[in-house]
Amino acid sequence: MLVRQTALLDRPRTPAPPPPLDWLTLGDAFEAACLRRCTRPPTAARPSAALTAYAPVEFNREDAAQRMRQLLDRLDIPVTHEVAVGGLRRRYELHRLWVPQEHQDAYARILEAGWWQGRRELLGGPLPGASPARRLSVSRLAAAAWRSALLAAGRHVRRHILGVRFTDRELAAVLIRSAAVLDVPARLRPGTGCFLVSVAAGPDRARILSSAALEPARGAAPGPAWGEAVPPAPRPAC
What we know:
Layout: H1 2-10, H2 23-38, H3 49-54, E1 57-59, H4 62-74, E2 80-86, E3 92-98, H5 104-123, H6 132-152, E4 154-157, E5 161-166, H7 169-181, E6 187-190, E7 195-200, H8 203-211
Region (Disordered): 218-238
């Protein structure tokens, strides 16, 4: 009996969960996490979660890279921005952001915490008796999710819809719920290797674009206006 009691006392304790992020930090960390998830390759191409967390993130639009830099700057995470030019007949730019090794643990922790806390706030549904301030903060998380998708995911714009393509199933659920928080119905259509989330043209499209409007990033060159045509970029197969 004594041996059993000692074994129980020696059992390692489960580490306490990190404290929740304040709303301002959560908004930035959640949006940065969404931006990163928009660029993820299909699951089969990812050898491990650890490598994915520390790997550089690549964008094919400058305004998406500038937004990521702005968010990481607010989170006190240093980042290096590299630009590569490719293509033969049709030139394109690839914007790669990477975090120095000594800051990678903090980078992974803050984005992981931001994603799971933001996801919980959105998917948990409206809380009975929630304060107006909290409801406003959840609406801002919803807008951040759509802003990241419009910046970094593959755009699918047709006369009758505004859509985005990506390969992340959990991000698809977050976008559907975020549209509902913004009082806009959204549709999810699974494809081969990716998901398409779309809203109807007209008032629904206008509400999403207005909610996700992006203030200019500090020190960034102005990017295309919302709804402005941009050169086609590589997209996930769908």
